[in-house]
């Protein structure tokens, strides 16, 4: 009894030594690893001003008249100069009536309107296009597939199969299956016996037998005995490891961008290829070009409509008359004028305004009295404009508005007034920038690939005060620009983070501070 206790104590001590050795060996290996960490201030931002909302428009006034001259118009005389007061009906200038083709001008407007609709469709397609990743990495995913590889038939008592005798519990036969469950055939066991009928044994004391393929009559007999209870069937299962899928990820964002799935035979069952086309910067440039084309085309239509209005306001003798009483705030030189700008402007008020549009998603966030920023195309002059009205019905032409991710929203027109002394004239084209109230968000925005999830929630791998890596759970918000996720709590801009994969996912690893994580995530 004492000897037994002594042996048990020795075994316990040895087990403790082995376990301790493994533990300290593991910790030693972990202590030798080094992972790179970079300051969050170099990878994230703590400011974000909502979605990029842009509109455009043209400066006008409630009581004003802009006179555009067609390219081929022949001016005979100009009867006013800047600063003059005119009354409604006064002749401002005279043109050669024969040089004005009203029907052709209407055709130009129709063609320009069609071209604008084409450009708007092009922009809509671009806004819905998923950019191709700059870099794609792939990962094979394996899985275990369990299936029945055989059914064993054991004797329930002493039985006879053909000319062979079997004892209770003997394995008598088995049916083999492939991975799809299709039968590969039956076999049965023939035990080796000596002259006395006793079974021969191998060195380990097990019965010696050989396996023979079962013919149809033997298979029929096996099934019959299984059905009447002479044989007991038992499934034998196995697992097959196979390539289940190949997944493709955007290296910069960690987003899944493609996946190919396979069946157990390696045949493709489903396939989503990674986006192949314009990269994000190329797509953004194409969207900017399309938006610029729409702005120019829209303003071209307005100019053509003003030209038509001037034509229709011309008398049979070629006189262009004032439609409002007011002051001539602009008139161009008859010998050197720019047809892309009004030839003359008459204003009856000091209040200038611009018209823009805002999407329905932001309609409740733009209020009368709010300010928007405007920038003049002609001279770069800027001004703050105060919103004086917002339409309660959608713009029939879609409006001059876009915002990333909201290309299909209905848009509503608004008007905003600004100081006439800002250097932006009536008739000028302007860009309008809108920051809806409530869009400034609190928090830190960090690259999405620095965040992982487990059953406890979203977490990052951060360097602690001991220069060791630790897992820190964070509260996340929305993802913006496609690659930055808002962290509402759990981090500060002074923290250092690691790429949370490989060694960067192991708590306790020693940290090496670097300015930036390289393309490999700082894993070396």
UniProtKB/TrEMBL annotation:
Residue ranges of coiled coil: 280-314
Transmembrane domains' residue ranges: 7-26
Keyword line: Coiled coil, Membrane, Transmembrane, Transmembrane helix
Gene3D superfamilies from the UniProt entry: 2.40.420.20
Entry-linked InterPro entries: UPF0194_transport
Cellular compartment(s): Cell envelope
GO cellular component: cell envelope
Keyword Transmembrane helix appears in the UniProt entry: yes
Predominant location category: other
Protein name per the record: HlyD family secretion protein
Organism: Pseudobutyrivibrio xylanivorans DSM 14809
